[in-house]
Every structure is written in structure tokens, then in C-alpha cells.
Amino acid sequence: MSYEIKTGNKQENSILWTGDFYNEGTGSGDIFDTLKEECGVFGVFGHPEAASMSYYGLHALQHRGEESAGICVADGRDFHYHRGMGLVKEVFDKDKIASLIGNMSIGHVRYSTSGDSRLANAQPLVFKYRDGDLAIATNGNIVNEPLIRKQLEQSGSIFQTTSDTEVLAHLIARSQKEFVEATKDALRQLVGGFAFLLMTNDKLIVASDTHGLRPLVMGRVGEAYVFASESCALEVIGAQFVRDIEPGELLVLDRNGFQEDRFAEPQRKALCAMEYIYFARPDSDLNGSNLHSARKRMGSRMALEAFVDADIVTGVPDSSISAAIGYAEQTGIPYELGLIKNKYTGRTFIQPSQELREQGVKMKLSAVRRVVEGQRVVMIDDSIVRGTTSRRIVNLLREAGATEVHVRITSPPFKNPCFYGIDTPDRRELIASYKTVEEMREEINADSLAFLTPEGLIQSIGGYNSGDYKGGLCLSCFDNDYPTQVDFGGEEKDGCSC
Ligand code: SF4
Q: Which residues line ligand 1 (CB under 6 A)?
């Protein structure tokens, strides 16, 4: 079967990474060998319970960052804020939320790379500048941040954190223009994928990079405005979804009301495809597509592209369950819970030995022997990073008695680093960058292995009919076609820095 898919018009300014430098990303000490979520942001304008709404919103975004959490509230005159290391429910209690009085707030949950997991980098970052207070929360990564930081340092700036966000604050503070124009000037200097919430004593500013790489949505609850990385955070506080924030857009909310503006013209739309495949919650909608439904379509398409007969279909929890249901519905092969996730694993602070690492995956996942024993199993997963976790899961199923394990991955091979806020391993550790599909099959000990095609992915997500180049998606980690410049002569940054 062949597929003829329209992916929009190829743009002249597509940038191919030459591979001259490497993403350093996460170290190899991670037990679970998965891509790391970036961060989550949540903002409220015009509600007396801004802090408690932020608490619930951030709780809904917890999957986007477990390292630290913070909320900053403005009461029209002063800021009140609290940040801490840990989960939202660990950082905040009733008294702390009650002390955050004001009707405007921004909040943040953060995943960080191992080297900078410290309170100083927890967001929102709060600054004093000539016109008052400034708080910033961001999701994403500024690729040219090291270059800008170096230039600022050479001209006298002193930085207190390693966060990108501080660079934006310095650029704004140095401008002679009023705050909104200064922010626009600063944003125009940044290259990368980012969603920013900025708050002064009397203003909330919301901005998305010119490609819309990172998700950001707007909602309303009563007269108040709410902004969040994912729509699931709107649902939890009873807010109505209004729309996605557009590439290059800048919204200003203050005593004059709500003003739609932009800091730059939109470029090729390139929303992160991994949000659909893996990161975002299945009950969120992105760009008009529900995540659960999109993942089901990926599973269904997978069945059309690389059918294999079997007795049961199972998905690696949690992100691949929807796709496994789609594969099962398309083929008629029963969907079964062949793998169970232990929800209480939590974070681990030990550097495990190889032996404990092998055990580590059993802490997180169990195969259900009564379900898989004697069965030919189709195992659906969202991606293969280094290959180590995939091999461990296949072996779990075999140890539980599966007679065959056929692996179907609902994304194309992950070959290239991310520069836009996803913390990926060093490129040399990405198994798809140096092995063929057959070699990967052998490595993960599967009976067969297949990946979803880029066309299948685009069509499943729903961008097929949009006419946008590549369905309006970033697929750079699969096809090495980056929407922005990523090489700044060695002065560039990859991964996640929110
Ligand atoms: S490179 Fe991959 S992970 Fe990064 S923004 Fe693009 S699609 Fe998402």
C-alpha cells in the first residue's frame, strides 16, 4: 500500500542541521531512558483567587515538570511569591496559597537537566527593574541564549541563574523604551521555541515564538483570562477554552483590558510533534486536535502501514494506551492490559548500578503474566530513544510468557536532538541515528519492529488538510529539518532550559 500525502509547500528557509556539534542533553544515568518533558506555565488575569486557580492549573500540568514549582501573584502594588523544589502538592499548602493575595498570577512547573536542578533556577523568576517588579515564567529553549548572555556579560551584566529567562529580563531592563515595546524588542532578538508569561505590578504579557513551537492556550472563566501550556489545565478550574496563542503573537492584559498584538510576523508554523506523540495529556486539545483521538489515529494508521497478526495488542503506559486502542480497533485484535505502570515510583536520587537499572524498569512497569502468557503480543510504544528501555520492556513480556513480541512505534525514528525545549540525550546515544531498523529490532530483542511514517504521523494528527508545510508541525528530531537557525558558531544551546 502506498500513501500520497500533501505536506504543504516546502519553504526556502528550512534549515538542515549539519551535525557539526552535539546535543549534550541528559546524561546516561537516567534509569528510564525517556525523553524529558519540558516545563508548564499557567497564568491568570482578573480573578481574586488567582493563586488557588494557579495551584490547580499547575497540578494539571505536573506531568510537564516535577523538579520545582512556583507561583507569583500581583496585588496591583506588590508581588507575593513562593517557589520550591518538588511537586506542586509538596511545594504549596493551604497557608502558602492563602498568603498569595492578588488577582493576577503566573505559575510554573519545571523539569530541569541534572546539572541545574536548584532553587535559584525555579520559576517564576522575579526581578526588580527601574519601573518596578517583573516576574517571568517560560516553557522552551532559546537557542542563541549563550551568545546573547556572553554579549550581555561583556557589557557588564551579572547573571544570578543559568536560566534563559534571565537573559530576557536583562534585554528588557536595558531598553530605553516603555515596557511593552521593550519586551517586543527583546523577544525579536531570541531564536528558539518558547512560550512566555511576563508579569509586572499592573500587566500580564503572553508571548509565543514565531513558529509556535511550544503549546500555549487561552481560556476564560467568568470575566477572567487564563493561559496554560495545555487545555487540560483550563478544564480543571472550569475555564472555557478560547483559542491557541498564535506564532509571534503578544497579548497584553492590563487596566485598559485585553489587547492582541504581535512582536514579529508569524513564520512557518511548527508545533512540536512530540507533544502529540508523547508529552501532552490525552485529555488536552492542541491546535484543534484532541490528544487521545490523535494517538488513536496514529495506532490505527500504524496498523495500516505495518500490520502484523497477533493474539493481543498492548500499549506501554501511559502515553501509548490510546494508540494501542487504535491499533486494536483497526485490526480487530483484542486490546489487553499487558503492561501495568506503578504510579508511585516517584523520582530516584541514586545513581544505579547496571543491575539495579535492570530492576529499575520493573519498579516502573510490570507485565501481566495471566494476560500475556502464551500469546503473540503487539506492543505499541511512542518512541525509541537509546533502545535500552524498549529492550527491557520486550524482555518483561517475554519473561511473562509472551511467545512473540512485535513492536510498533507511533513516531518515525528519533535521530536528531531537540533545540526547542525537550531534553534529549546526546545525538550519539540516539539508537536510530546509527542503526538500521533491522539492527534496532535485534537490539531490542523484538520479533518485528516498525515505525510510523512522517506522512502517517501528519495525517493522524490532523494537519493533512491544513495545507501548512508538514501539517504545521515540527518534525526536526525525525527529519533534521529545523524551523530556525540552530548553529550559532558553537554559541548555541539545545535541550530544555526553562
Ligand atoms: S525537535 Fe522534536 S521534540 Fe523538539 S520541538 Fe521539534 S518535534 Fe518537538
A: 193, 213, 272-274, 418, 420, 422, 474-477
